[in-house]
Amino acid sequence: MFYxxxxxxxxxEKAAEFEVHFIDNMRNYLPGVEGLRRSTLLKPxxxxxxxxxxxxxxxxxxxxxxxxxxSFKQAHARNKGIARHVSSNAVETFAPLEDLVx
Length: 102
Description:
Layout: E1 2-9, H1 15-29, E2 36-42, E3 51-57, H2 60-67, H3 70-77, H4 80-83, E4 88-94
Antiparallel strand pairs: 1-3, 1-4, 2-3
């Protein structure tokens, strides 16, 4: 597995509109992405904390292929509606070290 996260800092007054745009993009552009197993948007409990988007891929290569795909470009071209709500963001990638399922 390979994980890509994005911490998205959104001012509280823009949160509701951000959520609508981001979830709409998830539902319209992520189904059918090769190797994508799961996409999650976490909502912060505190207004000064970021939203966190987590995408779980089978492989890093599939993640990289998605980032260079037309679908990714179309979704992010449409992100102007999302970007105006985000004050900053940070993309991070991970490989699992331990996965304990109970």
